[in-house]
Automatic annotation (TrEMBL):
Protein family (similarity comment): Belongs to the sulfotransferase 1 family.
Keywords: Cytoplasm, Signal, Transferase
GO molecular function annotation: sulfotransferase activity
Enzyme class: transferase
Signal sequence, start to end: 1-23
Protein name, entry field: Sulfotransferase
Gene3D superfamilies: P-loop containing nucleotide triphosphate hydrolases
Annotated EC: 2.8.2.-
A single GO cellular-component term on record: cytoplasm
Segments passing through the bilayer: none
Organism listed in the record: Geospiza fortis
Length: 355
């Protein structure tokens, strides 16, 4: 999953290299296949070029970090980055199109994996087309906003139909136009123990966040819902209950790990789409963790260290179920289990804590 972060101006050099300049939209025609997403060294080199070549105003490392790190505010009771909250009126008023497909997850629940699978399906298994741009441009992040920079809304408005739309919003905050236009929605949920560990490492490497403290401290904040996007429990239950009345395909990360072919077939059936067996094979290979981890269009390694420090933790870290067992103490696991039972009481939603 991937939670995108606001980008300081120095990073626009990288976006320009990928065929996108802020304020101008894609610099290549829709569907144009770029040779490759640039390496980090190319991004840095571009950032050092004269401003006349691109809309880049390099900042010092200290200024960059100060610009990136954000406090959390509250949006209708949900903890969220302040810049996202400032952009809320535009998100709330967003006009979905009937053929939009919304991909919804709680952060760190396989968002980037699902996004890559869906883009592959939309491109009929054409690997080169799926390398045309970074994943966060191919599947725009609905609520992303940073002052003076292209927002998720603006990117979506410039994206031709049919659009793939990514969000981490809880169900009660989803713009009403998605319901009014009867858009199809795919939600993917992941067990909370793995989410908590993945979110902890993401807080360390993604510089939008303040220091998350110790693993024990972060775990307490996670259980209390004092993290971006709030309570995991409320999020997964809210979308689970909504699927009783709307076009929502509810998937589980653990099922996807166990039998990705079966889950991709579920997606195809939900979309009313048929693909040849060889195309499905190609999608499964291209979206395997090993392939995505080395794919610059999917692994976020083109993002400068000022935004995401992969030396602390890779964006695509392990991609397994049950890694929490390598991090939880016995006491923490017992406390988490008790808390889980209390907050999930009365729900028919169940999670596998490992595969």
């Amino acid at each position: 999953m991937a939670l995108a972060v606001p980008l300081p101006r120095v990073f626009w050099a990288g976006l320009c290299l990928m065929g996108y300049c802020p304020g101008t939209g894609p610099s290549t025609a829709p569907g144009t296949v770029l040779a490759q997403v640039p390496s980090s060294s190319e991004v840095v080199e571009a950032a050092s070029r004269e401003e006349s070549q691109c809309c880049v105003d390099p900042l010092s490392a200290m200024e960059q970090e100060a610009e990136i790190t954000q406090e959390l505010g509250s949006l209708h009771g949900i903890p969220l980055y302040k810049s996202f909250i400032e952009g809320w009126p535009q998100v709330k008023a967003f006009q979905a199109r009937p053929d939009d497909l919304l991909l919804s997850t709680y952060p760190k629940s396989g968002t980037t994996w699902l996004s890559e699978i869906m883009d592959m399906i939309y491109q009929d298994g054409n690997v080169e087309k799926c390398r045309r741009d970074a994943i966060y441009n191919r599947v725009p992040f609905l609520e992303l906003r940073a002052p003076g920079e292209t927002s998720g809304i603006e990117l979506l408005e410039n994206t031709p139909s049919p659009r793939l739309v990514k969000t981490h919003l809880p169900v009660q905050l989803l713009p009403t136009s998605f319901w009014e236009k009867d858009c199809k929605i795919i939600y993917m949920a992941r067990n909370p123990k793995d989410v908590a560990i993945s979110y902890y490492y993401f807080h360390q490497m993604a510089k939008i966040h303040h220091d998350p403290g110790t693993k024990a401290e972060f775990l307490e904040n996670f259980m209390a819902g004092k993290v971006p996007y709030g309570s995991w429990y409320d999020h997964v239950r809210g979308w689970w209950e909504k699927k009783q009345e709307k076009k929502i395909l509810y998937l589980f990360y653990e099922d996807m790990k166990k039998d990705p072919r079966r889950e991709v077939q579920k997606i195809l059936q939900f979309l009313g789409k048929e693909l040849a067996e060889g195309t499905v094979d190609r999608i499964l290979h291209h979206t395997s963790f090993q392939e995505m981890k080395k794919n610059p269009a999917a692994n976020y390694e083109t993002v400068l260290p000022a935004l995401m420090d992969h030396s602390i933790s890779p964006f695509l870290r392990k991609g397994i179920s049950g890694d929490w067992k390598n991090h939880f103490t016995v006491a923490q696991n017992e406390r988490f289990d008790q808390h889980y039972q209390e907050l999930m009481a009365g729900s028919d939603l169940h999670f596998q804590m490992e595969v």
